Amino acid sequence: MRKATADTLDSYLFAPHISSPVEMAKDTLSYILSERDAERLMPYLNLYQYGDALLKKDGGVLTSYGLLERRDGQPVQAMEVPRSGLTMQ
User: Fold this and answer.
1) What is the reported pLDDT for 81?
2) Residues contacting residue 4 through CB under 8 Å, at least 6 positions apart
3) Which domains does the chain have, with CATH numbers?
4) CA 11 and chain centroid, separation
5) Pairwise CA distance, residues 79 & 37, whole Å
6) CA 35 to CA 40: how far, in whole Å?
7) CA–CA separation, 58 and 67 (whole Å)
């Protein structure tokens, strides 16, 4: 028996404020450095490439709603969208 999607929500992290590799890079730099140091360093970095590398390393997925990552660090797999049982006849 398959688990319902709602039963697995605790296995994921959701960050609606991150919707691009650049935002991922900025968020990470702000976390590991002081805000002042992060702001000073950002103009000298390729934020897109750094953010993209972080996403690949962490297995995160950018959705139209924001960043989705698994808590266990494994890659996020494609989710099945249930089909309606209604058909036109």
Assistant:
1) 47
2) none
3) 12-70 (1.10.10)
4) 13
5) 38
6) 9
7) 11
Query: Residue 9 CA to chain centroid, in angstroms?
Result: 14
By CB atoms closer than 10 A (0-12, 13-18, 19+), residue 25 is buried
Q: What's the CA angle centered on 54, arms 45 and 21, to 5 degrees?
A: 65
Backbone angles phi, psi at 12, to 5 degrees: -120, 155
**What phi and psi values does residue 4 have, to the nearest 5 degrees?**
-70, 150
Q: Which residue has the tokens 């976390």?
A: 31
Q: What is the pLDDT along the chain (89 residues), one digit of tens a residue?
A: 455 455 566 677 888 999 999 999 999 999 999 989 999 999 999 999 999 999 999 888 998 899 988 776 666 765 544 555 555 55
- CA-to-CA separations, 27 to 8, 39, 58, 76, in angstroms, rounded: 26, 11, 14, 20
